[in-house]
């Protein structure tokens, strides 16, 4: 059997490793932090910084293909790895999604609707950006943001200065506020041969910037559902993408607006573990290993709930619930905002 190298050892790497093992592959995790969740289930773990060229070279030599569960791998590490082994999904998808500005420009160039946006480095640029978008608006760091971190809402031009201070000098982007009715995401996969398979769109609810629940089916009409899936497929095609991607969308009366794309398996796709014969993790492994994709068909309705921080104390009650599948990440330390696991509550498909 061959070995799949995974950059990043969090819960996504853990669940990818489980899926890979089911398909007869070994996984080798590369993770700078100690005791990563994926380390408990992977066949091998390298603990080293992304700057350690010798460790990266040994890792590449020990694996057949490289994927990632973490988008912010330094370019220098990717350059080195790519000289030895294929990286799937490819570098272009990573480059574009690492920076909210290049991401938004890419989506707009594809003809997709996005929030109005402008890059912001200075107070003068922020003033003119606000003049263009109006308020409310959201100022976001261009790089390294997740779970709503590095974002501040601007409700009136008067508080712009304070918002810019919050960016602490990091390059930023201002986005006009999208007046959406709800949020959905499409988890889409593209195989090595170019075939595309999408899972049913899920409806996402965030709390404090962190995904709380994903519900399938999402509230969408047939035309909106088709729009969502075609839109996601066009993003994957344009990138010559191989693997699973999460595409986050706002539903508005004017149509679907793309929020962001994530070039990896996605938290809002965890429902597929109990709603589909082939889940997003197996789908990703199939794609990067060059196997045919599963079709993504949903066999039941699912509500996925993240267990964040102290939610994990509800474990005894969750264990008593019928039709509630548990997925725990094996993290020893509970911290506020830390994703400890999730549950999928299933019921027969309503339609
Ligand atoms: P993730 O953890 O999904 O990567 P993130 O930190 O990259 O999150 P975003 O997805 O950009 O952040 O924003 C988090 C949430 O904030 C969105 O899901 C949405 O609810 C809200 N939001 C972000 N941008 C906008 C916008 N332009 N208009 C309205 N709401 C927005
Ligand atoms: Mg994001
Ligand atoms: Mg998001």
Automatic annotation (TrEMBL):
Catalyzed chemical reaction(s): 5-amino-1-(5-phospho-beta-D-ribosyl)imidazole + hydrogencarbonate + ATP = 5-carboxyamino-1-(5-phospho-D-ribosyl)imidazole + ADP + phosphate + 2 H(+)
Organism field: Salinihabitans flavidus
Domain of life: Bacteria
Function: Catalyzes the ATP-dependent conversion of 5-aminoimidazole ribonucleotide (AIR) and HCO(3)- to N5-carboxyaminoimidazole ribonucleotide (N5-CAIR). Catalyzes the ATP-dependent conversion of 5-aminoimidazole ribonucleotide (AIR) and HCO(3)(-) to N5-carboxyaminoimidazole ribonucleotide (N5-CAIR).
Assembly with partners or alone: Homodimer.
EC top class named in words: ligase
Protein name: N5-carboxyaminoimidazole ribonucleotide synthase
GO CC field: cytosol
Ranges for domain ATP-grasp: 104-289
Biological process, per Gene Ontology: 'de novo' IMP biosynthetic process
EC identifiers of the protein: 6.3.4.18
Family matches, as Pfam families: ATP-grasp, PurK_C, RS_preATP-grasp-like
Residues where ATP binds: 100, 140, 145-151, 175-178, 183, 206, 259-260
One function term, GO molecular function aspect: metal ion binding
PROSITE patterns assigned to the protein according to its UniProt record, in alphabetical order: ATP_GRASP (PS50975)
Cited InterPro entries: ATP-grasp, ATP-grasp_carboxylate-amine, ATP_grasp_subdomain_1, PreATP-grasp_dom_sf, PurK, PurK_C, PurT/PurK_preATP-grasp, Rudment_hybrid_motif
UniProt KW keywords: ATP-binding, Ligase, Nucleotide-binding, Purine biosynthesis
Stated family: Belongs to the PurK/PurT family.
Pathway: Purine metabolism; IMP biosynthesis via de novo pathway; 5-amino-1-(5-phospho-D-ribosyl)imidazole-4-carboxylate from 5-amino-1-(5-phospho-D-ribosyl)imidazole (N5-CAIR route): step 1/2
Keyword Cell inner membrane: no
């Amino acid at each position: 059997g061959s070995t799949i190298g995974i950059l990043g050892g969090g819960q996504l790497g853990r669940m990818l490793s489980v899926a890979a093992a089911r398909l007869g592959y070994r996984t080798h995790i590369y993770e700078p932090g100690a005791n990563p969740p994926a380390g408990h289930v992977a066949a091998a773990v390298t603990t080293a910084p992304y700057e350690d060229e010798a460790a990266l070279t040994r890792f590449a030599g020990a694996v057949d293909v490289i994927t990632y569960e973490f988008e912010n791998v330094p370019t220098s590490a990717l350059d080195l790895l790519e000289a030895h082994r294929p990286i799937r999904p490819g570098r272009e998808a990573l480059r574009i999604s690492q920076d909210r500005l290049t991401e938004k420009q890419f989506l707009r160039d594809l003809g997709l609707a996005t929030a109005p946006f402008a890059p912001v480095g200075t107070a003068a640029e922020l003033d003119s950006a606000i003049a263009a978008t109006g308020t409310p608006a959201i100022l976001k760091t261009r790089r390294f943001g997740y779970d709503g971190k590095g974002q501040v809402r601007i409700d009136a031009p008067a508080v712009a200065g304070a918002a810019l201070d919050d960016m602490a000098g990091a390059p930023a982007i201002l986005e006009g506020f999208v007046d959406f009715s709800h949020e959905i995401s499409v988890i889409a996969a593209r195989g090595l041969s170019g075939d595309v398979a999408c899972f049913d769109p899920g409806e996402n609810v965030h709390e404090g910037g962190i995904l709380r629940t994903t519900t399938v089916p999402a509230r969408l009409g047939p035309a909106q559902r088709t729009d969502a899936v075609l839109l996601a497929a066009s993003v994957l095609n344009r990138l010559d993408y191989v693997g699973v991607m999460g595409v986050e969308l706002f539903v508005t009366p004017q149509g679907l607006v793309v929020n962001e794309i994530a070039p990896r398996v996605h938290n809002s796709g965890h429902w597929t573990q109990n709603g589909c014969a082939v889940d997003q993790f197996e789908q990703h492994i199939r794609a990067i290993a060059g196997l045919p994709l599963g079709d993504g068909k949903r066999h039941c309705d699912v509500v996925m709930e993240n267990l964040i921080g102290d939610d994990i104390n509800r474990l005894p009650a969750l264990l008593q619930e019928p039709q509630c599948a548990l997925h725990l990440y094996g993290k020893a330390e509970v911290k506020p905002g830390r994703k400890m696991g999730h549950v999928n509550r299933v019921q027969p498909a309503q339609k």
